[in-house]
Amino acid sequence: MKKQLIVLLPFLLLLSCEKPADWDLQNKETNLLVVEALLTNELKNHSVKLTHTVTDINQKPIPVTGAAVAVSDGNNVAVFIEYPTGSGVYYSDSVQAVIGKKYYLFIDDEGSEYVASDEMVPVAPMKSIKYKPASKEEYYEIVFQDSSDPSFKEYWISWSHLPGYETEPIYSTTARVQHYTLKSIDVNEMFKPDKKKVYFPKGSYILRRKYSLSEVHQSFLRTMLSETDWRGSIFDIQKGNVLTNLSMGAIGFFAVSTVVSDTTIVK
């Protein structure tokens, strides 16, 4: 036992003498176009958000203004207009996508052209929502259920209308939770880190929305989650770029999804 201690002590002393080192990291100026676009079966004004990539972690994205944006199904064209000017957010008139059609996004930014495409697939009806009493007294939490089809679900929860919560700040009386069902087997998904649980009182409103996912949309979400929600497990993958369906010089994703929704009051 004494011999083991004699061997280990010099190693411990070496560890105690470590000094911090400053690394001069070289940021690569890419200035890529970042696209956030979602078209659904809902009859409404859809939006496309355009920004440029940034090099600093806390840097605010710069809006891409004055671009020409349009979506087509091969026969009809919907033009998107920036509003307000300088925001980098572009809106269509009331349009509605339909199942079985392929849609194309076209962007012209100062003479540089970009294109993306996705196809709307159907979505299965949602199962009845489930929630259970939480470990926190007099509160509840959602019981997440995988879908029978690839999908993305979001839950908007609010209890700001309940007695005793009216004067609380909005961020402490509302929550948004996401749940993904992807038809793949990913080790980093199976061993993903636990997410912070959301607790809500009786009488809360839950708005639930479910989005269908095409094959390419699934692939995008899988790579995005591997770099975000699933990172930190013991089976982390090598860091890399998130998949995109945009042409060269742009990143992000143009998605077309069927949406179903419902509203529940927690009883």
Task: Characterise the protein shown here.
By secondary structure, the protein is mainly beta. The chain has 2 domains: 33-119, Immunoglobulin-like (Sandwich), CATH 2.60.40; 131-243 and 257-265, no CATH class. The protein is built from 3 helices and 16 strands. Strands 1, 2, 3, 4, 5, 6, 7, 8 and 15 form a 9-stranded mixed beta sheet that branches. Strand 1 (33-40) and strand 2 form a beta hairpin. The protein is globular and about 60 Å long.
Tell me what portion of residues adopts beta-strand conformation. 35-45%
Distance between the termini: 63 Å
Compute the number of structural domains. Answer: 2
Could you give the count of β-strands?
A: 16
Largest sheet: 9 strands, mixed
Order of helices and strands: HEEEEEEEEEEEEHEEHEE
Break the fold down into its secondary structure elements and pairings.
Layout: H1 2-16, E1 33-40, E2 44-52, E3 62-63, E4 68-72, E5 77-82, E6 89-95, E7 102-109, E8 112-119, E9 131-133, E10 139-142, E11 151-158, E12 174-181, H2 187-190, E13 200-201, E14 205-212, H3 215-227, E15 250-257, E16 259-265
Parallel strand pairs: 1-15
Antiparallel strand pairs: 1-2, 2-3, 2-6, 4-5, 4-7, 5-6, 7-8, 9-10, 10-13, 11-12, 11-14, 14-16
